[in-house]
Specification:
Elements: E1 2-6, H1 21-33, E2 38-39, E3 43-50, E4 53-60, H2 67-78, E5 85-91, E6 99-103, H3 111-120, E7 126-131, H4 140-143, H5 150-173, H6 175-182
Parallel strand pairs: 1-4, 1-5, 5-7
Antiparallel strand pairs: 2-3, 3-4, 6-7
């Protein structure tokens, strides 16, 4: 069993913003699997499978900085080990559209990831990071809550598809093989 959590903020105000890429990837995976999210108050959840592997998709509804509350609740309920938890989130340190898969480590300053580390008392879960680039002349807090420009959106839509593919590769082939495929720079 795998727990796949896409991070974001709830509500129409945040739909398709830089900080909500995790939600978009989780929604695409659910669409591909033909499953629907159900609202459970603290989070939305959907259950499906890649082959023989059960997948629990999660979208925390706690706002980004409290994502750990939802991830811990679902992890504890389903008894999912950290090695089978995948967190999908935006990353300021990567160029827009670039993917990076990672095993464990620090939050890199991402408050949603830090909340998960704090609530799980563990940082060994897997990550699928999607680059959003750094703002040139505005505070990070405002930048991450903005929508992408039309020229960026095409790049990001491709990254969302690749991130969903990467999650499937992790589940079916393992993180090491997935990292070899998806951590390469695209031409």
């Amino acid at each position: 069993m795998w727990l796949v959590a896409g991070l974001g903020n709830p509500g129409r105000k945040y739909h398709r913003t830089r900080h909500n890429l995790g939600f978009e990837v989780a929604e695409l995976i659910a669409e591909r699997l033909g499953i629907r999210f159900k609202d459970r108050g603290l989070y939305e959840i959907a259950e499906g499978a890649y082959g023989d592997e059960k997948i629990i998709l999660l979208k925390p509804l706690t706002y980004m900085n409290l994502s750990g509350n939802a991830v811990r609740a679902v992890r504890d309920y389903y008894k999912v080990p950290s090695s089978k938890i995948i967190i999908i989130h935006d990353d300021l340190d990567l160029p827009p559209g670039r993917l990076k898969l990672k095993k464990g480590g620090s939050s890199g300053g991402h408050k949603g990831v830090q909340s998960i580390i704090d609530k799980l008392s563990d940082n060994s879960f897997l990550r699928v990071k999607i680059g959003i680039g750094k703002p040139l002349d505005e505070p990070v807090e405002g930048y991450v809550l903005k929508k992408f420009s039309p020229s960026e959106r095409a790049l990001i839509d491709n990254a969302i598809k690749r991130a969903a593919d990467a999650v499937e590769e992790i589940v079916t082939s393992g993180i090491d093989i997935a990292m070899n495929i998806y951590n390469k720079k695209e031409d």
